[in-house]
Amino acid sequence: MKKILFLLCVLVGLIASAQGKIDTDRPDQTESAVLVPKKYFQAEFGFGKENSTGEDYTIAHPAFLLKYGLSKRFELRLESTYFSEYIQLIPDPKTNTDLAPVEIGTKVALFEEKGILPKTSLIAHVGSSFRGSGPQVWPYYSVFRITCQHTITENIGLGYNVGAAKEEEGSVLLYTFSPNLNFGKRWYSYVEAFGFRSISSTPGEPRWQHALDAGLAYYLSNDTKLDFSGGVGLSDNTMKNYFAIGFSFRIPVKEKYRLR
Length: 260
Fold this sequence. Notes:
By secondary structure, this protein is mainly β. Helices cover 5% and strands 58% of the residues. The protein has a single domain (2-252), classed as monomeric porin ompg (Porin), CATH 2.40.160. The protein has one helix spanning 2-15, and strands at residues 40-51, 57-69, 74-87, 94-99, 102-111, 119-128, 141-151, 156-167, 170-183, 187-198, 208-221, 224-233, 241-252. It has a twelve-stranded antiparallel beta barrel. The N and C termini lie close together (12 Å).
């Protein structure tokens, strides 16, 4: 009987949270300004397909972001994607399966929303590739983002990011802009424009790459969320289109369930 009561307590803890609804960085490209609650672990998984030029495509299986609420102002983050890349070559197509650079980082709360001042946080990541015989020189990859959120009405919001990333091929500037809507008790939707610009483009090469996407999410509970999304490229040098599904959850860490 005690074991059954313990399992019921754990289940209630997962389904009924006093922290409000889970806030995730997926499925849009706009990272949230909200941090994971203190002493909570949060995991966000996505599976999808991105079609690029010609018949080439990439499948994420999965993309993942793991987060832990260290305090009210800091969260720890670990992110990467396990993917397969299909390249149409004649006569023999080629498929590569690999792990994208593994990034570790933090999100830091900077300002709470007040008047025209948005809720604002800073995200900083560094990462390394584990391809070949060993990791590349550290850091192989780094990204910094300022994330902002405005509350327009009780159910309408606006999120946007600006930032920069340094990759093996060079450095880029990036932006996102995403109006969003909560409707019903469990539904969330958004539309988004996003893109990036290479700082070190060769002369004559298109510098800005733009895309549009939209998505829908459903809260199974305050601590669990399903999402669906898709997008299209607007520039000749971007992906053609993509679609993805995802699942996110959070659980308290070091919670004690006492039975009497």
